[in-house]
Specification:
Layout: E1 2-3, E2 5-8, H1 24-37, E3 41-43, H2 51-63, E4 68-74, H3 77-87, E5 93-100, H4 103-110, H5 114-131, E6 135-141, H6 148-161, E7 165-170, H7 177-190, E8 198-203, H8 210-219, E9 224-227, H9 241-250, E10 257-258, H10 266-277, H11 298-306, E11 326-328, H12 334-343, H13 350-366, E12 370-371, H14 372-383, E13 393-400, E14 408-414, E15 420-426, H15 430-441, E16 446-456, E17 463-472, E18 475-483, H16 486-507
Parallel strand pairs: 1-10, 2-3, 2-9, 3-4, 4-5, 5-6, 6-7, 7-8, 8-9
Antiparallel strand pairs: 11-12, 13-14, 14-15, 16-17, 17-18
The structure holds 3-methyl-2-oxobutanoic acid and zinc ion.
The site of zinc ion has 6 residues, from loops.
């Protein structure tokens, strides 16, 4: 069985999704979960893009021990210098350097001749090696629209220069499985030194073919697949890694390939990424969507009750969905709580453990059954709470309705300067009244572009989670909030988005570079 390496770029390409801006603690939580998920390589970010990204990559490189950590660099010595600074403490650091190779990119974007591009690519791989990187992935951006002969020529030269992985991305999601597979076959057949390296595929989903293209690459010699959790990423996103891992497992009769992915960590990984990025997973999404295991029609329900395999090709347990995950209750003590969170894979400092236990106890006063999903919300919120940055804090709120009156929200906040502010506004509905009030209370100019609400787990006492997308003083941000009350969750999501901008301002004091 051929072993396929899984390269996760949720924290880099995934983070390039519009409105997604994870802070350092959120990135670290995702990185730890990705390690539990069993990926082989983690692209932690693009350190030259901002001070915030640099610090997040450095922290991840210092923390993650069982996964090779990589960072993106443009074909520039200064980007490689910054990547080295961010990665030098990693157990297994690797550089990911790229340059575009398609005629359209070379002519219009780079304004370089093919010969110049070859020279830059070779020079940058050589520079990366001199800098200290033992592993170097080189990517031919827009490879799928590159002339094959030219691609083979440049690939051979960068391998000679010291590249250890060659990545051939379908940057714009344009290729078909047959074409993409043939490109890998061509490299295998025409690049004399190709067997010295891992060949990697990196597919975007603009035409909905990212996963099919990734599998076509494997069938034609790729030994590494790049993608993201939930398929998030630029534009239509990247290949969804959880779909790849499950497809290779379920159709193992057809695909003789294996990965190191720990399948029963799939749901938790997907939930964490969705929660922290604010990118909801569509109900009908393969493998992790809410409806992926729901059987609506009577005939299907009847079949599944008689034998699940009639209509269920993936068992929910395989991807970590437990039907009965009641864990702790009102009478559970600190000891049982500590054991449980350890079981869930969390490692909390004593202070954070006390904070989490307090939040758990508060929840047991209001909710009869506390599930793994509830604990996951408490723990994630505590682990990613950035309390050392100035911010707005919700003190109290009240929404009043009457049959003939517009709803009125009254909200009190502590401002970033530490003073108390209170006001009231009306709206056509309760959320609008609440948001009109918050908008009036905060100094920043806010514009709400998206809002959605979901429940964590099942039952009428389930926690509510609100996600918003907003422009705050011109910066596009996502915010989230969870609480048992939907209006409280909504207010927290609004303030989380505004507070996030303070953090961006604090960490991004350098000009943001882009790819
Ligand atoms: O899609 C792409 O080409 C990329 C490269 C930077 C690897 O993300
Ligand atoms: Zn990409």
């Amino acid at each position: 069985m051929v072993q396929i390496k899984i390269f996760d770029t949720t924290l880099r390409d995934g983070e390039q999704s519009p409105g997604v801006n994870l802070n350092q603690l959120e990135k670290l939580e995702i990185a730890k979960q990705l390690e539990r998920f069993g990926i082989d390589v983690m692209e932690a970010g693009f350190p030259a893009s901002s001070q915030g990204d640099f610090e997040a990559v450095r922290k991840i490189a210092q923390t993650i021990k069982n996964v090779s950590v990589t960072a993106l660099a443009r074909a520039k010595e200064s980007d490689i210098d910054v990547a080295w600074e961010a990665l030098k403490d990693a157990t297994d650091p690797r550089l990911h350097v790229f340059i575009a190779t398609s005629p359209i990119h070379m002519e219009h974007k780079l304004k370089k001749t093919p010969e110049e591009v070859i020279q830059i690519a070779v020079d940058m791989v050589t520079y990366g090696k001199q800098k200290g990187f033992k592993k170097i992935e080189w990517s031919a951006e827009d490879a799928s629209r590159t002339d094959l002969e030219f691609l083979a020529q440049i690939v051979e030269k960068v391998i000679d220069a010291g590249a250890t992985v060659i990545n051939l991305p379908d940057t714009v999601g344009y290729t078909t499985p047959k074409e993409y597979g043939e490109m890998f076959r061509y490299m295998k057949d025409n690049v004399p030194n190709i067997n010295k390296v891992d060949l990697s595929a990196h597919c975007h989903d603009d035409l909905g073919m990212a996963l099919a293209n990734s599998i076509a690459a494997i069938e034609n010699g790729a030994t590494q697949i790049e993608g993201t959790i939930n398929g998030i990423g630029e534009r239509a996103g990247n290949a969804a890694l959880e779909e790849l891992a499950v497809a290779l497992t379920i159709r193992n009769d057809f695909y003789p390939y294996t990965t190191n992915i720990v399948l029963n960590e799939t749901k938790r990984t997907s939930d964490l990424v969705s929660k922290l990025t604010g990118m909801a997973v569509p109900g009908n999404k393969a493998v992790v969507g809410r409806n992926a295991f729901a059987h609506e029609s009577g005939i299907h329900q009847d079949g599944v009750l008689k034998n699940a395999s009639t209509y269920e090709i993936i068992s929910p347990e395989m991807v970590g969905i437990q039907s009965n995950n009641l864990v702790l209750g009102k009478h559970s003590g600190r000891h049982a709580f500590k054991d449980k969170i350890k079981q869930l894979g969390y490692d909390l400092s004593d202070d954070k453990l006390s904070e989490a236990f307090k939040a758990f106890k508060l929840l047991t006063d209001r909710k009869k059954e506390v599930t793994d999903d509830d604990l996951f919300v408490i723990l994630t919120d505590i682990q990613t709470d950035v309390s050392n940055v100035k911010r707005y804090v919700l003190e109290s709120f009240q929404v009043q309705y009457g049959s003939y009156n517009l709803p009125t929200a009254t909200v009190a906040l502590t401002t970033p300067e530490g003073s108390r502010a209170e006001t009231a506004c009306t709206g056509q509905g309760s959320v609008e009244a609440l948001y009109n009030t918050l908008e009036k209370l905060v100094k920043e100019e806010t514009h709400l572009t998206d809002y959605h609400l979901s429940s964590i787990g099942k039952g009428r006492d389930a926690l509510a989670e609100a996600h918003v997308s907003m422009s705050v003083d011109g910066t596009q941000v996502n915010g989230r909030g969870s609480a048992q009350d939907v209006l409280e969750a909504s207010a927290q999501a609004f303030l989380n988005a505004v507070n996030r901008v303070f953090l961006i301002q604090k960490t991004e004091n350098k000009e943001k570079a882009s790819i």
